[in-house]
Design goal:
The protein is of the alpha+beta class. It has three helices and four strands, in the order αβββαβα.
């Protein structure tokens, strides 16, 4: 199995196990869109999967991830399941912080 496909299977299995709503974008005409889109704690998250942490996203992919960030969501390039878990853990930390301070959004510049 190709490294990126293996990562996709791991990520989808993990998201399913956590009951996190998500879907994959597989239409070749949407090649710049994130591989996986998910909603976690009310946040729109676009994940571009790469075979490892060193592999760069294409310019068009980075542009779409940036548009997601500008719109208040999270757009990230992920090269491992651990990286996705870090993102989810960071969201949970923000949620705990927000509950204490009554702030309900994560500023796009901090994502």
């Amino acid at each position: 199995m190709l490294p990126e496909k293996k990562l996709r299977v791991e990520v989808v299995n993990w998201l399913n196990s956590k009951r996190i709503f998500h879907f994959r974008i597989e239409d070749p005409s949407l090649s710049n869109y994130p591989d996986i889109v998910l909603c976690y704690n009310g946040l729109f998250i676009g994940i571009e999967l790469k075979k490892d942490e060193e592999t760069q996203a294409r310019k068009g992919q980075l542009s779409v991830l940036n548009e997601i960030r500008i719109s208040g969501g999270i757009g990230a390039v992920v090269g491992s399941l651990d990286k996705l878990k870090e993102i989810i853990e960071d969201i949970d930390k923000w949620e705990e912080y927000n509950e204490q301070d009554h702030i309900k959004t994560i500023p796009a510049k901090d994502c």
